[in-house]
Design a protein that fits this description.
- The chain is mostly beta strands and about 160 residues long.
- It has a single domain (about 5-25, about 45-160), classed as Ureidoglycolate hydrolase (Jelly Rolls), CATH 2.60.120.
- It has one helix and 13 strands, in the order βαββββββββββββ.
- It has one helix spanning about 15, and strands at about 5, 20-25, 45-55, 55-60, 60-70, 75-80, 85-90, 105-110, 115, 120, 125-130, 130-140, 150-160.
- It has a five-stranded antiparallel beta sheet with strand order 2-9-6-12-3, with no helix packed on it.
- The chain starts with a strand and ends with a strand.
- About 30% of the residues are buried.
- The model has no long low-confidence stretch (mean pLDDT about 90).
């Protein structure tokens, strides 16, 4: 199989909507934007988990061969100390398997977080420029297992031109 090549695009909330939402700060001083509804999908035995990740940067282009999803809960990444980061998502086929040939890849600014919908296939957190820290919020339970990892045909993610 030929190596797929995906160019990083700009954040596009409409294109990303099937996979989740972007976390944006409110435009008006003193106002709030609520995203709590994104965390509603979860199993009855799950509990909230909040942690901070430390991510080492990569240099573009990169080759992605592993993706993940969390079938039972949304996963929220809030940039704490970040330059830019990569989001890559893809739909599932009728069997629930990832569709790498339909991958959407986005170069995200430090000012925007992301919420992945339950069941969204996505690249693990990947940053460029410098080491980064994210706050991660999601639900976890003992069963059923909510971490699924897959090896996919190589996708080369390249910088925008």
């Amino acid at each position: 199989m030929t190596n797929l090549v995906v160019t990083l695009g700009q954040p596009d909330a409409e294109a990303f909507a099937p996979y989740g939402r972007f976390l944006l700060p409110p435009a008006e001083p003193g106002s709030r934007l609520f995203y709590s509804d994104a965390l509603d999908a979860r199993t009855e035995i799950s509990a909230p988990v909040l942690h901070i990740n430390h991510v080492i940067p990569v240099t573009l282009p990169i080759v992605a061969v592993k993706i993940e999803r969390h079938p039972y809960a949304a996963q929220c990444f809030i940039p704490l100390d970040v330059s830019r980061y990569i989001v890559m998502v893809m739909p599932s086929d009728a069997n629930g398997d990832p569709c790498p040939d339909q991958a959407l890849s986005i170069l995200m600014p430090a000012t925007t977080g992301v919420i992945y919908n339950p069941g969204t296939w996505h690249l693990g957190m990947t940053v460029v420029d410098r080491p980064a820290h994210f706050t991660v919020l999601m639900w976890r339970g003992n069963s059923p297992q909510d971490d699924e990892f897959r090896t996919i045909p190589a996708i080369t993610i390249i910088a925008p031109t």
